Amino acid sequence: MKKIIETIAGEISGVLAQIDENEAAKLANELQNAKRIFIAGTGRSGLIGKVFAMRMMHSEYPVYVVGETITPSIETGDLLLTISGSGSTGSLVQYAKKAKKIDAKVALVTTNKDSVIGELSDCTITIPAATKKRLASEPDTIQPLGSQFDQSAHLLLDAIIVYLLLQKPEGKSHSSLNQKHANLE
Q: What are the tens digits of pLDDT across the range 84-98?
């Protein structure tokens, strides 16, 4: 078991070491300047999006998850952040097209910047991780399906949260973030 844990940690560390920090900083800037943030993904990538949305809410950003019953209409000045390993997930392509049509910005976290959503995006972060497709260009992994991409996306987006918090002049303490944490539990 210890060897498996160390192997997975090494895989993720290797993937994250290859992230273009300029792409990450650009996404952070887009998030910071958006009127509102809408996050979309399917499957496990969608769950990673929900984790990120929760942290953005704790950090006092106006954020919504696409598909939830309380999510309003996206508008000009908003940002749609899509998380898709392939960058070509059908429903996410449609969301990106609709967002662009009403002049909202689109951002993508993906392994494939040249994808359909990548072409529509104002901002893309490429995560050089293995996906369920196991393309020759992807790194080796002992993990099933797109686990390496999803885990890398989770940690990258958490790093962006930390970056955003450090950019705030007043800073954010653990206790101030905790005040936004759910208390009906």
A: 999 999 999 999 999
